Amino acid sequence: MREHAVIVAHGQPSDPAPAEAALAALAGRVAAHLPPGWSVRSATLAAPGALEEALGGAPPEALIYPLFMADGWFTQINLPERMTVVGADAGDARILPPMGCDPALWELAADAAQEAARERGLAPGACDLLLAAHGARNNGRAARAAHRIADHVTAHSGFRAVHLGFVEEAPFLPDAARAVQRPALCLPLFAAAGEHVREDVPELLREGGFAGEILPAIGLHPAVPKLIAGALVRAPLIGREIADG
Question: Which of the residues 64, 107, 117, 192 could staple to 122 if both were Cys, CB 3.0 to 4.6 A apart?
Answer without folding.
Answer: 117
